[in-house]
Design brief:
The structure is a single chain. About 25% of the residues lie in helices and about 45% in strands. The strands form two sheets. A seven-stranded antiparallel beta sheet has the order 3-4-5-9-8-7-6, sandwiched between helices. Strands 1-2-10 form a three-stranded antiparallel beta sheet.
């Protein structure tokens, strides 16, 4: 006498789905596409293909070259500014003669939150000479000002040739979303 096996389609599909999710979970965890930077003041994640350099008061994360210019994000910080946010922003921009940069165009500013810290994002456009053989290129720059406890001041600067801004916008947003003060 032959036995007839009945397959319960729902059970088979559930087992297949669990099997796929199990392997997907472990393959994603092994091949993470990000690295973590951490110092005693803050931490953040960045693409593993990008390079980090850390100097006193400055962390630079350098990405690929676009229009002969390295796409980058910089974290300049000072643990003893003793200024509120608006004064910190004004001081930094005055010291750097922001409005006198070549081809300066003010894109405006907005208040944003990084974690639970109220911050200011100031968007500008400027021009940069990448080499004596190439003309100036337009550069899109975002300056994000943060102050923690009226002491630790951080300026995050993103720089990318203007025509590639939208290509890197999500990467910069993801880095900033991962940013955490300690």
């Amino acid at each position: 006498m032959k036995k007839i096996y009945k397959f319960n389609l729902k059970k088979v599909l559930l087992i297949c789905l669990l099997f796929i999710m199990f392997f997907q979970f472990f393959s994603c965890n092994k091949n993470t596409s990000e690295k973590r930077f951490s110092n005693k003041y803050f931490s953040f994640m960045y693409p593993k293909e990008w390079k980090a350099s850390n100097e006193e008061g400055l962390v630079t994360i350098t990405g690929p070259i676009e229009d002969a210019y390295f796409v980058n994000i910089k974290f300049s910080f000072n643990p003893e500014i003793n200024l509120p946010l608006d004064e910190f922003k004004r001081t930094v921009e005055n010291q750097n003669n922001l409005d006198q940069q070549p081809g300066f165009i003010d894109g405006g500013e907005e208040e944003i939150k990084i974690g639970d810290i109220v911050s200011i994002n100031h968007s500008i456009k400027t021009e940069v000479l990448v080499s004596k053989d190439l003309p100036y290129i337009d550069l899109s720059v975002n300056l994000i000002y943060m102050v923690k406890d009226d002491k630790l001041g951080v300026v995050v600067t993103t720089e990318v040739p203007g025509r590639f801004y939208f290509k890197y916008e999500q990467i910069f947003d993801k880095i900033m979303t991962s940013f955490k003060f300690k």
